[in-house]
Amino acid sequence: MKNRTRSAIAAIVAVPLVLGTASCSQDAGGDDGDITTIEIMGKPAATNTAALELFEKQVAEFEDLNPDIRIEASDVPWDAKTFVTRLAGGSAPTLLRVPLTEPPSLIERGQVADLSAELADVESFDALNPRVMEFLEEDGAVYGIPEKSYAFGLVYNRTLFEQAGLDPDAPPTTWDEVREAAKAITEKTGKVGFGEITTNNSGGWHLTGYTYTYGGSVIEQGSDGTWTASFNDEPTKDVLEWWKQMRWEDDSLGDNVLGKQEDLVAEFTAGNVGMWISAPPDVYPNYIASGGDPEAFGAGAMPQGGADATLAGATVLMVNAKATDAERAAAVKWMDYRALRPNYDTEVAAETAKASAADGLPVGVPVLPIFDDKTYASYTDAISEYVNVDVDHFASYVDSLGSLEYVAEPPVASQEIYAALDPLVQAILTDESADIDSLLDDAETRVNAILAQNAS
Amino acid sequence: MTIAPPGLRDAPAPRVAEATAPPPARRRGRGSARRRAAVAGAVFLLPSLVLFGYFAWWPIGRSVVLAFQRTNLVSPAEWVGTANFDALFADPLLPTAALNTLWFSVLSLAIGLPIPLLCAVLISELRRGGTLARVLSYLPVVVPPVVSVLLWKTFFNPGEGGVVNSLLGLVGIGPLPWLQSPELAMPSLVIVATWSGAGTAILIYLAALSGVPSEQYEAAELDGASVWQRVRFVTLPRLRGVILVLLLLQIIGALQVFTEPYVMTDGGPANATVTILLMIYRYAFLFGNYGVATALSVLLAGVLVVVSAVYLRVTRSWSTS
């Protein structure tokens, strides 16, 4: 082959290769003429077929109602380990669905858009729960809305309760009672009495929630505005001591304590765990979708150590700061359509409930409402005829929602703090001779270092 | 290792060129042909240069710069001098992670070096079923890393019903807590890493073994050498070069261990399996602190360069003797 021919072939091969690489960086969403395409989070997982069908139906209806908007939905959930990078790298969707721990840092870093103008037109915006909204508003700007809120409670297996000779209608309400019940379940059934999780920040999350029930806190703000660790005191020590007794004296926590929430949901669904702490309304749909027995599910009040308080949080919807005006408006329309309207528009609520019930999805799971009491009452009235969940099994949890004080998660560096507390919890649960005081000192130093770095 | 015998390397190329130099009248034509060839070569090289430059050298250069900056990859980066390194050295987890990584490396060399070598020697001695043994030994490498790690996580279930504990129970050992124990978690990870990586090393050793002339074994046998003496005086000296390269690769790989602790233990229990790479990952992708993450990456890369250089220098005479 002649040199010239070879050069020509090389150029033919090389040029598209280089151009092809360069063209890979185009964005998925955007404005295409009159059509605005938005990428959204929150599509149910493919395994949750009924919820996915309902979601797809809602997308189709929404697109019919808004012919100028196209939805591209993603079932990739928020993940503490990848979200920051996706957002920074520009590959995060237009509509973000994140836990309530995230908004402060997202707002501070300018990664989410101010939605005040768009939200002003949304009906019932003023009826949203102010206790959640305070995390989403800053200097008069509104950065998001809650999709759902939760409060910690006791999730328990009614069948195992019966087998252990416990009353499934009267779940334990204090940590001492939980310890006794766990011991009974392990002794009588051979199953794990009380399940615990300690990886992927869940150990720190639970330690925080349990500490609140003893009246403690994880971080506190000084008069000069700086934050410091505040957990190296009695309330947290009580929690750690309680864990230690359960693990090493009663042997009611089981052998496997190095897992995350998903692992425990699977074990609980399989009927291998008596009790654990989570947000019951969040757990229930996954439990049912995975084939859990509805009759065995029980939700109780968050066990207390004397403070009558529980950790409360929410899943919130925000919009990527990189969104165009049209994308932002489209995203808010979708937020209203999917997340808000079914909660305040009684007609839509009834329709959604009817469709969900027909598809075998749980309807009427008692939740911590995102709207005020009046709006929530009219919502529950509207869906009452379609309720297919045994609300009695949630009685203790529902009662607690009215009586316990809600305490929010740490407002700064929450995920980093949880990550720093995981090893502390793991040490207590995997090392019989773990020294609580020195572990707390170490964790305090580490959390203070995180807070100092965060402030600088 | 040498590429060509010294005699060849010093071949008198210029004299050859001189002797065959074209007459002056044709020089021009030859020159432009050479230029064309050079241009063609450059065009062929260009895609690789662009791809390597864009995806490898540019990020490497950027990461060194990033180690001295603070950025959230949204707002413009800000120069912070050595603040990232200061924050890193103030992190009490760094010594723990460094020691854990070293411990993993020592364990994985102690277990991961002799086992593949032994397997390769045994397989090469097989009269029958050699191919099957090769396939079986390589099979774990084909399993995607995350799948094999999750599989082993199930095997290491701490109860009596766990696969490993059930097997050990047959000989009266256990049940052991494996991943749930700060002492046993790291050795458990090394077992998994060895299981997943041994197949490649076995194949390389086997290829090297096939290059050992059978006459040398026959001569050794005639001289009355035992099996061990044949391995010691014939096999190992012939494999020395391969062993050295694999050892270096294993050291570098072990110092960069990530998948096993990330998927199996998330660094737990109680930081017993936090490694340097897991720290880098957390800094970058959990805390969004890219400056400190890259500072640690640059440090690790520096350590690896030094380790490799020292290793090659120390073993140079050994490998060529």
Automatic annotation (TrEMBL), chain A:
Coiled coil regions, renumbered to chain: none
The membrane-spanning stretches of this chain are none
The record's section on Pfam families has: SBP_bac_1 (PF01547)
| InterPro entries referenced in this protein's UniProt entry, alphabetically | Bact_solute-bd_prot1 (IPR050490), SBP (IPR006059)
Signal sequence residues: 1-28
Protein name listed in UniProt: ABC-type glycerol-3-phosphate transport system substrate-binding protein
* Keywords per UniProt: Signal
Which PROSITE patterns does UniProt cross-reference here?
Answer: PROKAR_LIPOPROTEIN
Q: Which domain of life is it from?
A: Bacteria
Specify the species. Labedella gwakjiensis
UniProtKB/TrEMBL annotation, chain B:
Any GO BP: transmembrane transport
User: Which superkingdom does the taxonomy of this entry point to?
Assistant: Bacteria
UniProt-listed InterPro entries: ABC_transporter_permease, MetI-like, MetI-like_sf
Q: Is Electron transport among the key words of this record?
A: no
Cross-referenced SUPFAM superfamilies: MetI-like (SSF161098)
Every copy of the ABC transmembrane type-1 domain together lies at 98-311
- Bias (Low complexity) occurs at 11-20
Q: Which PANTHER family match?
A: ABC TRANSPORTER PERMEASE PROTEIN, DIACETYLCHITOBIOSE UPTAKE SYSTEM PERMEASE PROTEIN NGCF
What's this protein's name?
Multiple sugar transport system permease protein
